[in-house]
Design a protein that fits this description.
With 966 residues, the chain is of the alpha+beta class. The chain has 13 helices and 66 strands. The radius of gyration is 63 Å and the shape is elongated.
Length: 966
């Protein structure tokens, strides 16, 4: 069996060798990846008549509504003056873009930071005015050649020369440095200078309707015609290239062609897409609407230096990755449904689908021909196919209805146990196969002829067994979709389960749901949404496989592992897949970007990848299969040279959106007013192959460090300050290759109040202000001097005044003291005078009293007349007005205006009242007043009472106090 397996492997590799020989070969199985750009994406017309690429990597398309540009991210449309269809487009080495349409041709260049059109038709000599379409444009050195059906226009040194023929022209073609054109009815001519020279033809064959001329072997030309197929011109005659490709091109009407990789030829047709042929004329690829194109009518083809084949279609634009490691086969008609498993076995490819088992012949015996498939349903295989597995050169089909052995296009039922999910050899005994089914486990063994046959169903266990693995101790692990894990111990005869252990959250698992089992480098690992776990036999618990989870990154949550051989494994994380390399101890390499276009296209939880050889794999997808060539992928990565990032658009987003420039990465620096200092910078990497592209940017003069890597292709900067800035950006694809840094310089002008003229005005104003300030300062200085002088004078005067006031106060004080002394003296004199009067009156009263006591000599009282005379003298002494006048005068001197105030306020006062007031004012006692007034004490009281009433003194007021306050 070992020798037969080795023979089979060698035969298998020999079978595949013609299809996967080198990385530069275009594979002949399936079709390369086709990326569609419908008009709903590029937002322009349906038809795309021509394609070109400039030195920056930007693609240009001659479209029904104008010129289209595409940089890998952004589409832009530019219209001709009269909105003509752009039939032709070409780019020059200096980056100039030339276009042609009906009655018009010219070039596009940078004007005022925008791509603007300049017509050249005004340079055409008058007799040859352009009246039809420009179908072809070629740039050659300093020449630009425009071709219509009536003439060829050569633009050089700002002049146009015209080349015509006797008959109308068809299409002009460039091969190296030579140009060829067909003249209707006269065959092919070569454009030499400004002349058309007919090609030599010694044969009888004359190709008509030439639509493509390409370089061929040994300096010959490969000529493609619209209805007669391909011809080879050797310099002497034309010979048909009789191959299957010729028949195809005749049938479906060749329309255009281009050379690829210097060894292949691509031809677009009117009726059936395009084909790629090799130099012998064998069809290598056939790509049409059923295999990915949007439309079967190919109006233009262009092969760029990155091995992308661009197809301008009658409705849309498509890009074909010629050196992609992935080639596809899709069931566009829905013939076989959803693919759950696929496998290549003995010249046949088998597809296990939800509708049954389909097969088609694999490329045996076809040499270098394009491999086409004709899938047919194997009889009696209708129903759900879960698994296709090849073991010991025997193909097993796990089916909803049981398990079948497949031989060619026939099925042999070997087990009726329903739902054969997975089947594999027992590690402990390779002579047995164990299979997981809907309701338990099944064992197979080899018979005497070496054929695997059903043995028995294992007893005592009937749970659904989607994943089954055996550990080093011989125990069987089974994962249940909703109940966690089972560990089963089998009896020595392998017929029944003797011990069942269940594992769930109580044993360290994150849960019961979606726990799967896989073998990774001879070790069992358990997948979950929270990462991979490993089982520890001693503690009987699960722990996180931290080292693996950390290295896997996002694939730590993978729900499936498929062995890819040679220490490589496919990790599938809920629709996303990556190839993990474990080639070096402690180092894990994950490649997921290569397979990003397959994300979500495989049947979830039933992903299937079959190994064809060490470098080639067959992957099942929803509606077909994919061939992955690891050699192609490896070689492509080693030679990846990224273009520079393009600054595509600078927009003003201050309040309304306005495009400042369409050429941010040109040499000229952009100047932006301060009032429009919020901008958006859009950038793109002209890298068109399927890749994960991320950008990193840095604004010098604003940012402190490079930004994080991000897929965003534009950045807004708001409220930028005045100054010069340098915006730097670079790109990275597939987390590895990094482009060079692109720089874009711009300046934010200062605000109007900080501009140069404003600074000049400020300077003039400053000088004026300085001069004014000087004048004002001098004036102020003089004013201050005067103020200081005035202040000193005022202080001096104030001091003198103060001194004078102090002197005056001192004089007043002295005078007051003198007056007070005088007043005190007068008061004393007044008091003395009053007291003298009192004493006088008292003395006179005593004399009066004593006189009454006097007796004459006889002892008798004195005579009355004598007493009256004496009493009269005493009374006159007591009532002498001279005493009062003297008293009044002294009183007035001591108490100025006292009597005047009394007389003014109380005019009804009589002299006696005034006397009483004076005496009261002097605070005399009633006795003293009685003596002075010559009345009794009772009389004094009565007068006091009457005086209070006259003066209207309040009851609670003392009369003396009242008078003293006057």
């Amino acid at each position: 069996m070992k020798h037969s397996g080795l023979k089979y492997l060698l035969f298998y590799l020999a079978l595949l060798l013609p299809f996967f020989a080198t990385a530069d070969n275009i594979q002949r199985i399936g079709v390369p990846y086709v990326q569609n750009y419908p008009k709903s994406v590029y937002l322009s017309g349906n038809q795309n008549w021509s394609i070109a690429k400039d030195k920056y990597g930007i693609m240009y398309f001659g479209n029904a509504q104008g010129l289209l540009s595409f940089d890998g991210k952004y589409w832009q449309q530019y219209k001709l003056p009269n909105r003509q269809i752009v039939r032709s487009v070409a780019t020059a080495a200096d980056g100039t873009i030339y276009t042609g349409g009906f009655g018009e041709f010219g070039y596009w260049s940078d004007k005022n930071k925008h791509l603007s059109y300049t017509s050249l038709t005004n340079l055409i000599p008058h007799p040859h005015r352009l009246k039809d379409e420009i179908w072809k444009i070629y740039t050659f050195g300093k020449k630009v050649i425009f071709q219509s059906f009536s003439a060829i226009y050569i633009y050089e040194n700002k002049k146009i020369s015209v080349v015509t023929a006797q008959q109308s022209l068809l299409f002009l073609h460039q091969v190296g440095q030579r140009f060829y054109v067909e003249v209707n009815g006269n065959g092919l001519f070569e454009l030499t200078g400004n002349k058309l020279i007919p090609l030599k033809n010694n044969g009888l064959v004359l190709p008509k309707g030439v639509l493509s001329i390409l370089p061929y072997q040994n300096g010959s030309l490969l000529i493609g015609t619209s209805k007669d197929g391909l011809f080879v011109y050797n310099g002497e005659n034309f010979n048909p290239l009789n191959t299957p490709a010729n028949t195809f091109l005749k049938t479906y009407q060749l329309n255009n062609g281009t050379r690829i990789q210097d060894r292949y030829y691509a031809y677009g047709t009117i009726l059936n897409g395009l084909i790629i042929i090799d130099e012998t004329g064998n069809i290598v690829q056939r790509i049409n609407k059923s295999s990915g194109l949007q439309n079967n009518t190919v109006l233009s083809l262009y092969a760029d230096q990155d091995q992308n084949l661009w197809a301008g279609l009658d409705n849309g634009i498509d890009r074909i990755e010629l050196n992609s490691p992935l080639y596809f086969y899709f069931d566009k008609t829905g013939q076989f449904g959803t693919v759950y498993s696929s496998l290549i076995y003995k010249n046949n490819i088998y597809l296990g689908t939800n509708q049954g088992l389909f097969y088609s012949t694999w490329a045996s015996g076809r040499g270098n021909l394009f491999n086409t498939f004709d899938f047919k349903l194997i009889p009696n295989s209708q129903g759900q196919v879960w698994d296709l597995t090849l073991i010991d050169d025997q193909l097993f089909c796990g089916h909803n209805d049981g398990t079948f052995k497949v031989t060619g296009n026939k099925l042999e039922n070997i087990s009726t146990v329903k739902g054969g999910w997975t089947i594999k050899k027992l590690h402990s005994n390779p002579n047995f196969l164990i299979q997981g089914t809907y309701n338990g486990l099944v064992l197979f063994k080899k018979d005497g002829a070496g054929q695997w046959v059903f043995w028995h169903k294992i007893e005592n266990f009937g749970e659904p067994s989607r994943y089954v693995e055996q550990d080093t101790r011989g125990d069987i692990w089974v994962s249940h979709a909703y109940k966690g894990l089972y560990k089963l111990s089998l009896s020595p005869d392998l017929k029944k389960v003797t011990t069942i252990k269940t594992y769930d959250e109580r044993n360290g698992l994150p849960g019961d749901y979606n726990i799967n089992i896989f073998t990774l480098e001879n070790r069992l690992v358990f997948s979950s949404d929270e990462g991979f776990f490993i089982y520890d036999e001693i503690s009987n618990r699960f722990t996180k496989y931290t080292t693996l989870n950390k290295e896997l990154g996002s694939f730590a949550g993978a729900n499936k592992i498929i062995d890819a051989g040679s220490k490589k494994y496919w990790f599938i994380n809920h629709g996303k897949m990556g190839l993990v390399h474990l080639l070096e101890p402690g180092k894990v390499q994950v490649d997921s970007s290569t397979f990003s276009i397959l994300d979500g296209r495989m049947v979830q939880y039933y992903e299937n990848i079959s190994k064809i050889s060490d470098k080639i794999y067959l992957m099942s997808v929803d509606d077909g299969f994919v061939i992955y060539n690891a050699t192609e992928n490896r070689n492509g990565k080693n030679h990846t040279i990224l273009p520079q990032v393009l600054i595509r658009k600078i927009e003003d987003i201050t309040d309304t959106y306005h495009t400042i420039s369409e050429f941010g990465d040109k040499d000229t620096e952009i100047e932006i007013p301060f009032s429009r200092n919020s901008i958006r910078i859009s950038f793109a990497l002209p890298w068109y192959r399927q890749s994960k592209i991320k950008f990193q940017y840095y604004l010098e003069g604003y940012s402190k460090q490079w930004s994080d890597w991000s897929a965003a292709s534009q950045k807004d900067f708001t409220n930028l300050g005045q100054g010069s800035y340098v915006f730097k950006v670079r790109a990275r694809i597939n987390e590895s290759t990094v482009s060079k840094v692109t720089e874009f310089r711009f300046t934010i002008h200062p605000p109007f109040y900080a501009s140069n003229w404003a600074v000049a005005v400020y300077l003039i104003l400053f000088i004026l202000l300085l001069f004014t300030f000087k004048r004002l300062y001098e004036r102020k200085l003089r004013k201050d001097q005067r103020a200081i002088s005035d202040k000193l004078q005022a202080e001096k005067e104030a001091f003198l005044k103060k001194e004078a006031e102090a002197t005056e106060k001192q004089i007043i004080k002295l005078q007051t003291e003198k007056l007070q002394a005088e007043l005190a003296g007068k008061n004393r004199e007044l008091a003395n005078s009053a007291m003298s009067l009192v004493y006088k009156n008292e003395l006179l009263q005593k004399l009066s009293q004593e006189i009454l006591k006097l007796k004459d000599e006889s002892g008798k009282p004195l005579a009355e007349d004598q007493l009256r005379k004496i009493q009269k003298v005493i009374d006159e002494g007591m009532n002498d007005e001279r005493d009062w006048n003297l008293f009044e005068s002294s009183f007035n001197e001591a108490h100025e205006s006292f009597f005047k105030k009394l007389k003014v306020n109380h005019p009804d006062l009589v002299p006696n009242d005034l006397k009483l007031c004076a005496y009261l004012r002097m605070n005399m006692s009633s006795k003293e007043m009685a003596s002075l007034l010559n009345i009794s004490l009772r009389g004094v009281e009565i007068r006091r009472y009457r005086l209070r009433k006259k003066l209207d003194v309040p009851h609670d007021k003392n009369l003396v106090e009242f008078l003293m306050e006057l």
